[in-house]
Design goal:
By secondary structure, this protein is an all-alpha fold. The chain contains five helices and no strands.
Length: about 130
């Protein structure tokens, strides 16, 4: 396996993770509550922002998986996850399960993966 093939596996996996996030939010009726949460944190137009985030997951992640706009999408998702840490997960601690609940470890791992995919994408280095 070449490094490019290995990076493609990572890109497909983390992209699929974000698509599943969007599908679960829409399928579980979570877009509206997410918008309310964003407004409760001081963001204007929470419903529009929630739909924007969800659409990025539903439309942007498949583009990332297809190798399109890799740098910008990977960095967007890294920022989205970092904001999730700041708004939700940091206060819950490190662990997602086990020694804690709803912590930031999973998001931190995904952020690193997205940054590595962005840095390894063709054309990043000139």
């Amino acid at each position: 396996m070449t490094p490019a093939q290995a990076m493609a596996i990572v890109r497909l996996t983390i992209g699929a993770t974000m698509v599943i996030h969007g599908i679960a939010r829409v399928g579980g009726g979570g877009v509206e509550p997410f918008g309310g949460f964003l407004e409760s944190k001081g963001f204007p137009a929470g419903a529009a922002l929630a739909w924007g985030v969800t659409l990025m997951e539903l439309l942007g992640a498949p583009l990332l998986m297809a190798g399109r706009f890799v740098r910008v999408l990977a960095l967007y998702f890294a920022c989205q996850l970092a904001l999730g840490i700041a708004l939700v997960h940091f206060q819950e601690g490190w662990f997602v399960v086990g020694a804690g609940r709803n912590g930031m470890e999973y998001s931190a791992l995904l952020i690193v993966a997205f940054v590595v995919v962005a840095l390894a994408s063709p054309g990043w280095r000139k």
